[in-house]
Every structure is written in structure tokens, then in C-alpha cells.
Design brief:
The chain is mainly α. The protein contains 10 helices and no strands. The protein has 2 domains: 49 residues, Orthogonal Bundle (Arc Repressor Mutant, subunit A); 163 residues, Tetracycline Repressor, domain 2 (Orthogonal Bundle). α5 runs antiparallel to α9, α7 packs across α8 and α8 crosses α10.
Length: 224
């Protein structure tokens, strides 16, 4: 006996519409110009209805984070499937992440400013951002565990969070990169990965491994 999916309810359709309008507005108008009132007007619903589905603009930014990271995963996975080289797999995750951010570059500084405010729920390291952060860290974990390498187990366990933090730093550089197509950011990524490749064999040396694992553990404790 076949089971057919339930059609979305009116409430679910309204929520999806509000989300789509917000994501488009964030891309086209930026963070500052996108307001709950504007979203409600474009959707043809009341501000109260909009607040019923999304209590604040911050909730809609979290939807943006999720959308970007889900697209990031979808873009990276087919490319990860064709190589087992660790450095190339990391390059894929970083580069496809930048690709997904591309449409938001004109207004990126606005999002950075809002996210870096004290106690901001928009901070990528905040509890509110856990779902989007988890998607990205899982993608980095997939890149590492699916690669052909001889990294120690304790290092593998500590890497995904450190790689996520480096991804945030790269995105911060990208946000203020006014070069054509943000070419400076791409060059920075290429240079960093070029340094990483010859350094990888060294992490198996006891004199390097222990302090590196300790450093990664310390980095992993960073919170917003």
C-alpha cells in the first residue's frame, strides 16, 4: 500500500513563503534594510503573523545560515567523491563554501557587524547557530575521514572544529576583500593549503603531534 506525503498546511506554506522572501531580501538588500515589516508587506500578511512564525530577524538569519550550509554540502559532496587526497578534499570544502557566500558579498560587512556584536545570537559560535555550525563541521569531518592519510586518531577527532574556525576566518577575510571576484581570498586559500601539504607528514612526529593536539583542543574551546 502506497503512502502519499501530506500536502503542506496553510501555516506551513506561509512560513515557507516568509522564509523565501527573507532569504531573497538578505541577498538583494542586505541585513540592515531587511525588516520584519518589509517581509510581512511583501508576503501580504500582518507583522503579527510574521512574528508568529519568526520571532525576530535573527531567527530569519539563522534560516539563511542553514540554507547556505545546506547548499554548501550539496555542492561539496559530488566533488569530494572524486578524490581521496586530504589537501584537495579540504580545498573543495573551503572553495565551495566561498562559492555559496558569493551572492551575499555586497552586504557581507553588515552581517559581520551584526554577528560580532557582544552576545549576538548571530555569532556563528553561538548556541543559536549550532545547527548551521554542525552542518559545516560535519562536512569538514567527512573531508578528513574520507581521505587517504595517516593522521593520528586524536588529531582527526580535533580537526573538524579547528577547520570550521579557519573557515570563519577565511570568510571574514572574504567579507572585506574588494578584489575582483575576491581573488585575494582564493590566493590566500591556495597559499595556506600549499603550506599544509609538506607539513602533514610532520604531525606524526611525537615532538610535533602532542603540542599540535593540545593546541587544537584549546582552539576547540573557543565559544562566542
Amino acid at each position: 500500500m502506497f503512502s502519499f506525503p501530506m500536502a503542506p498546511t496553510k501555516s506551513e506554506r506561509t512560513r515557507a513563503q516568509l522564509r523565501d522572501i527573507a532569504l531573497r531580501s538578505f541577498r538583494d538588500r542586505g541585513y540592515d534594510a531587511t525588516t520584519i515589516r518589509l517581509i510581512a508587506a511583501e508576503a501580504g500578511v500582518s507583522v503579527g503573523t510574521t512574528h508568529y512564525h519568526f520571532a525576530s530577524k535573527a531567527d530569519l538569519v539563522q534560516e539563511l545560515y542553514l540554507d547556505v550550509q545546506e547548499r554548501h554540502t550539496d555542492a561539496a559532496r559530488p566533488r569530494l567523491a572524486v578524490t581521496s587526497d586530504l589537501v584537495e578534499r579540504l580545498r573543495i570544502v573551503y572553495a565551495t563554501g566561498l562559492d555559496q557566500l558569493g551572492p551575499y558579498h555586497d552586504h557581507a560587512a553588515e552581517f559581520v557587524s551584526a554577528a560580532l556584536a557582544p552576545r549576538s545570537s548571530l555569532n556563528p559560535l553561538s548556541a543559536d547557530s549550532a545547527a548551521a555550525r554542525g552542518i559545516t563541521q560535519s562536512l569538514f569531518a567527512e573531508a578528513v575521514t574520507g581521505a587517504k592519510h595517516a593522521l593520528p586518531t586524536d588529531l582527526i577527532a580535533a580537526l573538524p572544529r579547528a577547520l570550521f574556525l579557519s573557515h570563519l576566518l577565511l570568510a571574514l577575510f572574504w567579507a572585506y576583500d574588494d578584489s575582483d571576484g575576491q581573488r585575494r581570498t582564493r590566493r590566500l586559500l591556495d597559499s595556506a593549503l600549499a603550506l599544509l601539504r609538506p607539513a602533514l607528514p610532520l604531525v606524526r612526529l611525537p615532538l610535533v603531534r602532542k603540542p599540535l593536539v593540545d593546541l587544537l583542543a584549546l582552539v576547540g574551546e573557543v565559544r562566542s
